[in-house]
Amino acid sequence: MKRVYLSMTLIFIGTIIPPLFVFNLQCHWIGTVFISYGLSGIGLGVFECTFLAVITPLGKLTKAWAIMGIPMGFGIVNILGLLCTSAGMPVSLLYWYIVLMVPLGVFALVRYGPGSQNEPSCVLGRPSGQQRNLAAALRDCSSWLPLMLPHIVAKVVVNFVMENATPVNYYTYNAKEVPLWGPEDSNVLIPHDMYFAALGIFVLLGDTLSRRVTASLELPTYIGNVLLLLSAVVCSVVGFYLESWAEAFLAWWGIFFAFWGNGMVYGASAKYIDNALPKQYNLAAYSLWCFMGDIGGILGGVTVDIVRNWICGGHSFRYECLTHN
Known about the structure:
Blueprint: H1 2-24, H2 31-54, H3 60-86, H4 92-112, H5 134-139, H6 145-172, E1 177-179, E2 189-191, H7 192-216, H8 222-243, H9 248-276, H10 282-302, H11 304-312
Antiparallel strand pairs: 1-2
């Protein structure tokens, strides 16, 4: 639990830098971006895998709802937040909202998390196994790592699509209005923030519903689990392909399928790690799975310009692919 609290402290410091130094104190030093992203990134990297391992003794239903919290938080910021900014609310208030939520999350974990006095009595004292550190777990990798390979590969693919498709949309539909039926259309135009608030709804539905559906499935065989991962990857790739049409309407469905695939991989992998792997490798498996997924996400992030050029075809339209934004 100490690692979780440390990670949330780093996230808090990282998230308070933009609203405090950039918006309030008008600091324009580029280093604030690296410090903010660096601290937030380290905190998130430590938090995700540790938190998923720590809450395992609370049961599969708790895990199912917990992993749904990630897209729910995304949805609040990217749907309600964009609706508010489109109505004139200062963007800085979104950052302050995020800053406020971090200590509230710490409070909830202290009060209701594993080891707290409010933890359900049915799980108090449940042994989760002495967790091996990553080095020790890798020395005994033959007993768990080969079984994790399909989950790791799927995680890399869906993270690549997820971290590429989302920013690519912002760089493609970058005018004040978004044409719904293609770059040449001017009949149906949607205000920029309204369009991306709707996009956030598709992200929320795809990522949240798929995690809940996957958590409810019974997968008694390893082959069944792998086939589910394969269908998730196919779904994610189809979503990625729909982005290439440069049609705002299809981009909604592209992002839905991309995040549906991501949610399926998340739910299937969490269930497999908790139920099928030896308990002492729970934390190591989550750590390696998250780490390799982050590599896919980084690759997706650094190839945004390449994918944008693929979508835009080197053109700059009136409402899409603007070169000056």
